[in-house]
Specification:
Blueprint lengths: L1 H8 L1 H31 L2 H23 L15 H9 L2 H13 L7 H33 L3 H17 L2 H4 L1
């Protein structure tokens, strides 16, 4: 999402989306470390519902991205906002799997769940904004290199396919 948004709208207009994703991942990891992870692990129906909703949402995003053309013809008339990034992250089962794994792996580094939640939430939020900035900048570079409508359609189709393929590991 950051790459596509960076290519279409630029870094500054992509910042709200990236901030939403970073806050989403940080809060998700913090919540998991603070005890939410135990609830998720012990509720298989909730896990399945998250997978299904997350899959549907990610496939919808992949479809929208893949159908985009050049920025002037993009079906996304404006860049995604903070809440879109938050929604995307909180409904992404892959993000929950990462958060659960991190909370379990690093449980021994803190003397309480609250301290662990603070450390992991901050670390994941900062890491997310840094990596998303790199992906957005890659989109900016690609956006400057593409000259024809066909090139844009191919890029967006490839980004949509990659997003759709990224769903497979959570099911297999």
């Amino acid at each position: 999402m950051a790459t596509a948004s960076g290519a279409h709208f630029g870094y500054r207009q992509t910042l709200p989306l990236m901030a939403g994703i970073a806050v989403g991942l940080g809060s998700m990891t913090a919540g998991t470390a603070a005890g939410l992870g135990a609830i998720i692990i012990n509720a298989p129906r909730f896990q399945m519902a998250m997978k299904v909703v997350g899959t549907v949402y990610l496939l919808w995003l992949a479809w929208r991205i893949s159908r985009n053309g050049p920025p002037r013809q993009a079906s996304m008339a404006r860049p995604a906002r903070f809440l879109s990034g938050l929604w995307l992250t909180w409904h992404n089962p892959k993000g929950w799997a990462i958060a659960l794994g991190a909370a379990a792996s690093f449980a021994g580094i803190a003397s309480s769940p609250l301290i662990l939640a603070s450390l992991l939430g901050l670390a994941f939020g900062i890491s997310a904004i840094l990596s998303l900035s790199l992906w957005c900048m890659a989109g900016l570079v690609v956006g400057r290199l593409l000259r024809t409508d066909r090139q844009w359609h191919l890029l967006n189709a490839a980004l949509g396919i990659l997003l759709a393929l990224s769903i497979a590991p959570m099911w297999f």
